[in-house]
Design a protein that fits this description.
Helices cover 29% and strands 25% of the residues. The strands form two sheets. A four-stranded antiparallel β-sheet has the order 2-1-3-8. The protein has a four-stranded antiparallel β-sheet with strand order 4-7-5-6, covered by helices on one side. It is of the alpha+beta class.
């Protein structure tokens, strides 16, 4: 990833995401051209109503250019997150968007729960993977789950693993994010 995008570019990202969602109800003109259009970024788009999450979708190991993946992620966040019904136009008007671009992932010991907890750096995102099953928490989740054990247990639960024992062959990575959000 190149140096951080300018404030203007970050604003274009948010405008692009919002326009992509709004186009579901009212087609708009062409989306803004992004300076980072050709970059393949691992990212998540989240939509919030007040302090509550209303949708979040993202992609790791993204092969698509940002000009294509950002609008697609925004639409998926609004209409395809299985935890929520499709977004309404009124909710979009009240909600605020957040874009999280994952920065370099660093491997983290995960041969045991104890090894992971010892290496875990609070305030960083965490990816857990066993075989083809993979899940993650963005760094922002630390605002709600402030204890390391609770953070790991919740992530295990999200991924469908039991919190009793430790899955064989578990791998982990920690990461930071560039977070761009609308005022809220």
């Amino acid at each position: 990833m190149q140096p951080s995008p300018s404030t203007e570019e970050q604003s274009r990202w948010l405008t692009t995401a919002r326009q992509a969602i709004a186009a579901h109800w009212q087609p708009t003109g062409p989306l803004l051209k992004l300076d980072w259009a050709s970059h393949c970024l691992d990212a998540f788009v989240s939509l919030h109503l007040g302090s509550e999450l209303r949708g979040c979708m993202g992609r790791l190991d993204n092969p698509q250019p940002w000009q294509v993946s950002l609008p697609a992620l925004a639409q998926a966040c609004a209409f395809e997150d299985p935890r929520f019904p499709p977004l309404t136009e009124a909710e979009l008007a009240r909600g605020w968007l957040e874009i999280s671009v994952l920065l370099a992932k660093q491997p983290c010991p995960a041969h045991s729960r104890e090894a992971l907890l010892q290496a875990l750096e609070p305030q960083r995102g965490l990816i857990l993977q066993q075989g083809q099953r993979r899940t993650l928490f963005l760094p922002q989740v630390w605002h709600k789950l402030t204890e390391q054990e609770a953070f790991v247990d919740a992530l295990l639960g999200k991924g469908g693993w039991s919190t009793a024992g430790w899955p064989a062959g578990m791998k982990a990575w920690q990461f930071d994010c560039l977070v761009v959000s609308e005022p809220h």
